[in-house]
Amino acid sequence: PPHQGRKPAIASQNIIRQSTTMAAVTTTWCLLLYCLTSSVFTAEAFGVRSTVIASERSCTRVHLNSYEEQDIDQYEVDCNLKKHGVQRRSFLEAVSLTGLTALTAQSAQAFEVDPNRDISTGNFDCLLDLPPITPGCVRLYLCRHGQTENNRLRKMQGARVDPEINKNGYEQAERLGMAVGKLIESDTIHAPTLVAHSKLLRAKETSAVLADAANSVLKGKQEPVHLYGEVSSLGEVDFGDLDGKDVNSAKSVMMSTFASWATGDIDRRAGGEGDSGREVLERGVKALETLSQVVAASSTPQCSMLAVSHSTYLRILLALVADAPLAESVLWKINNGSVNVVDVNVEGKQRLVSTNSGIFGGLKRSNDLQLTMPECHLIRRNEVRHLDGMQV
Length: 392
Fold this sequence. Notes:
By secondary structure, the chain is an alpha/beta fold.
């Protein structure tokens, strides 16, 4: 393959760790630029990018240029407000409002990336053998973040713990991005060019490195991958007071909690004051609805999207998708840097998740769960061939 032996020229060699102050300055700059260049100054000027996609606007993005020093892609956005028939003037929009990748050059260095490392061992064609998107559906590529030191040291890492990715995690995200770049090269219409992530740092950093690596493969020949931003429903399970503890010491409590959820006791909370099973299931359905609606509402031809999330949450989400027992899904491997592929119906086909659903293993337990979710198809789970040859 053309990528063999080639080391991609990743523009950003450092992990993006942005200070709150600098993020606020950049966000303010973006909003000010929007307002100054809009022909109509309204409260809508303060909407985030997700609002633009979900609203009744028709936006066409034309790539202008890329600033190597700051890793910014700027786009000219022509927005027509269909509802009011108001033509807004063109304005420059920093694509990643939530990710704020503009601060790459000013970010603190978490570690040094070895420029001589060999990542050519990965199978970056691993997504090219996927079947066509299911009719009536959009496709979601649900990824797990790159490795952190907590992962390496086998410590509980839920919603209350927010470490950065480590050197292995950077390479995993980079390899994932290269596989995505190869996918876009082969299918410019159906391949994803938007990346969403949870609010946690490890997911944000993975998203940024992934996008950067994908764009190094594309070299400006196709629509670049850019950050959509934060989707709160993608967050990891809150493990309560178990967060940060050694996995072995917390295993018995967590397995007991999962067993309760798997048999219908979905109101039991993890770690005393963490998430209940009901809350995680509801969040999973919301994520599927949110992401699929973003894709369906977009005026671009792409009918898929990437999202970076977390292992325990993804196991439960994928069990929902496949209507598989939670008792089985808790044992599924969801590796750091892996990707799962799901097709979600956007033409109104739905199914009910209740106490009789397959996630409870056919055991009829008394709970009042009634969730309506879009019909989904699990296409692939835990794709890791792009990580071949990694020593983790």
